[in-house]
Amino acid sequence: MPGRRSVIGSYQAVADIAGQRFFSTTIPRHADITLTVDGKEVTVPQGTALIQACEAAGATVPRFCYHDRLAIAGNCRMCLVEVERSPKPVASCAMPAMPGSKVFTNTPLVHKAREGVMEFLLANHPLDCPICDQGGECDLQDQSMRYGSDRTRFHEITGKRATENKDLGPIVKTSMNRCIQCTRCVRFANDVAGVEDLGTTGRGNDLQIGMYIEKTMDSEMSGNIIDLCPVGALTSKPYAFQARPWELKKTESVDVLDAVGSNIRVDSRGVQVMRVQPKINDEINEEWINDKTRYAYDGLKYQRLTTPLVREGDKFVPATWEHAMESIRHGFLNSGARGDEIKAVAGALADTESLVALKDLINRMGSENLTTDTPLGHLPSPTGSEIRSNYLFNTSIETANEADAVLLIGTNPRHEAAILNTRFRKSYLQTGAEFALIGENFDSTFEYEHVGTSAKDVESFLGGKGKGAFGKIWKEAKKPLVIVGSGVIEGKEGAAVLKAVSKHMLDNSARFLAEGWNGFSVLQRAASRTAALDVGFTPSAAASKATPKFVYLLNADDIDPSTIPENAFVVYQGHHGDLGAQFADVCLPGAAYTEKATTWVNTEGRSQMGRTAVPPPGASREDWKILRALSEVVGEPLPYDDIYTLRERMWDVSPTLLRYDTLERPSAELVTAGLKQLSSASVSAGSATAFKKPISDFYRTDPISRASVTMAACSKAFTKKEYETTQVDDAIGGQASYA
Amino acid sequence: MSLRSALAPLRQAVRVTPRRAFGSSASRQSESLFVHRDTDYNNPNIKFEFTPENLKEAQKIIDRYPPQYKKAACMPILDLGQRQNGGWTSISVMNAVAKLLEMPKMRVYEVATFYTMYNREPVATNFVQLCTTTPCQLGGCGSTKILETIESHLNVHPGQTTKDGKFTLIEVECLGACSNAPMMQINDDFYEDLTPETTIQVLQALSKGERPKPGPQSGRRTSENSAGLTTLTGPPPKPGQFNLPEFQ
């Protein structure tokens, strides 16, 4: 397979360029320097922090404030090391590695320095460990055991510093007495999350972290400050006093609540998911996940379908699998559905294995009516499903921050792909990228110019009639990027917008389709959409006109009820009793993403393996197995009996589905062919109807988050702004004293 | 009996040991609050806008810095706002500064809470800042005496405002006039070389609405030797006065 090898070759080349993480992300420096750490020579790129050079040499340096993805503060002093010919110990996080310097991380001076710093930090730290949620994963606890002294010289009867608690909303629980003022949360909130409300007030011993005024931390990334906090000052409110880290089974998996495919670690105890944590993946989510990914897990406990249900009259009756399958067979035969009258609808949370199985099953039953639960999902997608680059985020999440001018069309990356939004925030702050939006305004973490609202505006802007400063920037941009939102593609104007965009790409191919750059990206927002298009889960033109008599809903919960005919026989397969289940004659309980090992393809086209953390509840089963069993019942048995043969079938459908964790970039020829196909579509010109945001409430977008209590609280607090901050102290009455 | 006497020293030892109940340590109270509490006199709904003259002044300050570093003007403009707002920086002043300088509000709050000369609570027209740092404590009659004088004269303690709303008294750290100790700063003026009598004179003049002469109250000029000059008393030497005759 020469094609495959070359693809892998180019991937390796990309990986080589990415290579080492630089101290500075803005100016890549390629000169290497050599220094000695504990007698060991180590070569690092120039500009690397000394602490990273020590890490590279295998010497562990304790730290609290330093974090390799945040700006450097240098205020905890825990990373002190000894440098030859330096009169004092040196804070290794704030000191660049110098060529030829001799560094020691394991000398009596360093030990004494660490012990002293530790003593200062503990002087004002409460002895809360037994009742602190951070216990077991607390940097302060671990490092005081490893580097601290076992006694203190602090015996002041006046007691330790006390700091008022803050109320940051329904996600972050604070216990500010425990704070050691490392300011990681402040730096994260300002630089990554883009909420510039968190800061330090006061000075000296009274310095405290907070927002000064009473306010919640309204950010979709706020949960990350809990991970960043090296002590128990910021802990998780929904997870408070639920479990200790050592009791949890850790399963590395993939998030499916948006199309980014953030890598996560599912922590479970017994059959219950206790929490979701980010897993580092520099190519996708770095070290962050958004709050929905992190906190929607309690939705896995509520509203679940645990047994098959069969409708009798106007209520559902629990049934055995045999009974449910028999009911489907009867219903199918009685409906008299033939050919394209058999319709399958795939929802946002359908995994790739079951999409392939369902497509095979429906095709075997003689139908091509494979649709999605989007507004115009019963029609073929305007992107087509033949050429991958037409519906992928071609630019890739990792390189999206290289774009110097970004045009967002009908999308709000903050809600549709919060991780991507942090990359844009980064490029906005560090490289001065410029942004513009055509569509509905949103509360952004970067400044953008609003250049239009509708498909007509897209055509006129890309037609060279761009007004304002951005029109000029756009013409001169070296790495321009157009992001077409999934809401646009799913709408009536999708084809017209794609036509205008693809024409613009082809006309300016030197900039948009240059070597190592692809400026055409479609941003999907549902985890299953890319896979659905990859496996060809779209209706044929003829099939989309048929009136269905038998409808099979696979996780389809955003379906428009009017697309289900009154007399059709409806089967719902999924894990939550949400909207889709209401229309069903038979409900089949499937497994949620934490309960099955399945393939997910993210918006870039990167396939990743989700893993089983907990067993599916009750009588529910893995989704592909349900379809396999059903195929037997309806007399069209599918030819795979285990997951391996099913994956072989997936390989036949598209090998990319099984090339896990790698990003296959379509060749330039293919991209051009795809764009030509889009630009030659015969569609009427775009109308002046304004684009609508597809996500109105970030915290309630899918059956899992809609069932989640935490997400409901977040929705109330942040979307509806109805959060009541608990008054910490009502004691201050009248005019307070001076100072 | 013998057992009791044997236990006596032990009991005594127990009694002698200071009692410290579990978790008895008192919380260390900070002298000011570093969070904002909405009150009827200080909340974001109270309007504050720079006057046209002050806006002009602010523009002059902003022009001192490169345009992309507009936020560098934060401190002088906060001071401008504080002056316009009657000597204190309300939350509305901070918000107005943030808006004027196009910076996040929190960055202004950080500055305003860090520096002690931004008063985040209202102060009286005469803001008495008495230095009680060591040189002032030791110099002259000593700042402790001055503090007692002011306290008894105004009938307030540090941190309080008089009932008539004319004076607010606080203790401050060194204001850099140690050679004229003890001293106090009232609004922008230093009153130095204080004695209880001169202190009361200054306060009385201020309460009448006069402005007493700032500087040393003892009559000496700046920080000259109070016992008269000991050096540089004669005329300065003429050019070449001390040269050898042949060079004169």
UniProtKB/TrEMBL annotation, chain A:
<dbReference type="InterPro" id="IPR054351">
    <property type="entry name" value="NADH_UbQ_OxRdtase_ferredoxin"/>
</dbReference>
<dbReference type="InterPro" id="IPR001041">
    <property type="entry name" value="2Fe-2S_ferredoxin-type"/>
</dbReference>
<dbReference type="GO" id="GO:0046872">
    <property type="term" value="F:metal ion binding"/>
</dbReference>
<dbReference type="GO" id="GO:0016020">
    <property type="term" value="C:membrane"/>
</dbReference>
<dbReference type="InterPro" id="IPR010228">
    <property type="entry name" value="NADH_UbQ_OxRdtase_Gsu"/>
</dbReference>
<feature type="domain" description="4Fe-4S Mo/W bis-MGD-type">
    <location>
        <begin position="248"/>
        <end position="304"/>
    </location>
</feature>
<dbReference type="InterPro" id="IPR050123">
    <property type="entry name" value="Prok_molybdopt-oxidoreductase"/>
</dbReference>
<feature type="domain" description="4Fe-4S His(Cys)3-ligated-type">
    <location>
        <begin position="109"/>
        <end position="148"/>
    </location>
</feature>
<protein>
    <recommendedName>
        <fullName>NADH-ubiquinone oxidoreductase 78 kDa subunit, mitochondrial</fullName>
    </recommendedName>
</protein>
<keyword id="KW-0479">Metal-binding</keyword>
<dbReference type="InterPro" id="IPR000283">
    <property type="entry name" value="NADH_UbQ_OxRdtase_75kDa_su_CS"/>
</dbReference>
<dbReference type="Pfam" id="PF09326">
    <property type="entry name" value="NADH_dhqG_C"/>
</dbReference>
<keyword id="KW-0408">Iron</keyword>
<keyword id="KW-0411">Iron-sulfur</keyword>
<dbReference type="GO" id="GO:0051539">
    <property type="term" value="F:4 iron, 4 sulfur cluster binding"/>
</dbReference>
<dbReference type="Pfam" id="PF22117">
    <property type="entry name" value="Fer4_Nqo3"/>
</dbReference>
<dbReference type="InterPro" id="IPR015405">
    <property type="entry name" value="NDUFS1-like_C"/>
</dbReference>
<dbReference type="Pfam" id="PF10588">
    <property type="entry name" value="NADH-G_4Fe-4S_3"/>
</dbReference>
<dbReference type="InterPro" id="IPR006963">
    <property type="entry name" value="Mopterin_OxRdtase_4Fe-4S_dom"/>
</dbReference>
<dbReference type="GO" id="GO:0008137">
    <property type="term" value="F:NADH dehydrogenase (ubiquinone) activity"/>
</dbReference>
<dbReference type="InterPro" id="IPR019574">
    <property type="entry name" value="NADH_UbQ_OxRdtase_Gsu_4Fe4S-bd"/>
</dbReference>
<keyword id="KW-1278">Translocase</keyword>
TrEMBL record, chain B:
<dbReference type="InterPro" id="IPR002023">
    <property type="entry name" value="NuoE-like"/>
</dbReference>
<keyword id="KW-0001">2Fe-2S</keyword>
<keyword id="KW-0411">Iron-sulfur</keyword>
<dbReference type="Pfam" id="PF01257">
    <property type="entry name" value="2Fe-2S_thioredx"/>
</dbReference>
<dbReference type="GO" id="GO:0016491">
    <property type="term" value="F:oxidoreductase activity"/>
</dbReference>
<comment type="similarity">
    <text>Belongs to the complex I 24 kDa subunit family.</text>
</comment>
<keyword id="KW-0408">Iron</keyword>
<feature type="binding site">
    <location>
        <position position="131"/>
    </location>
    <ligand>
        <name>[2Fe-2S] cluster</name>
    </ligand>
</feature>
<keyword id="KW-1278">Translocase</keyword>
<dbReference type="InterPro" id="IPR036249">
    <property type="entry name" value="Thioredoxin-like_sf"/>
</dbReference>
<dbReference type="InterPro" id="IPR041921">
    <property type="entry name" value="NuoE_N"/>
</dbReference>
<dbReference type="GO" id="GO:0098796">
    <property type="term" value="C:membrane protein complex"/>
</dbReference>
<dbReference type="GO" id="GO:0046872">
    <property type="term" value="F:metal ion binding"/>
</dbReference>
<keyword id="KW-0520">NAD</keyword>
<feature type="binding site">
    <location>
        <position position="174"/>
    </location>
    <ligand>
        <name>[2Fe-2S] cluster</name>
    </ligand>
</feature>
<dbReference type="GO" id="GO:0005743">
    <property type="term" value="C:mitochondrial inner membrane"/>
</dbReference>
<feature type="binding site">
    <location>
        <position position="178"/>
    </location>
    <ligand>
        <name>[2Fe-2S] cluster</name>
    </ligand>
</feature>
<dbReference type="GO" id="GO:1902494">
    <property type="term" value="C:catalytic complex"/>
</dbReference>
<feature type="region of interest" description="Disordered">
    <location>
        <begin position="207"/>
        <end position="248"/>
    </location>
</feature>
<dbReference type="GO" id="GO:0051537">
    <property type="term" value="F:2 iron, 2 sulfur cluster binding"/>
</dbReference>
<dbReference type="GO" id="GO:0008137">
    <property type="term" value="F:NADH dehydrogenase (ubiquinone) activity"/>
</dbReference>
<dbReference type="GO" id="GO:0006120">
    <property type="term" value="P:mitochondrial electron transport, NADH to ubiquinone"/>
</dbReference>
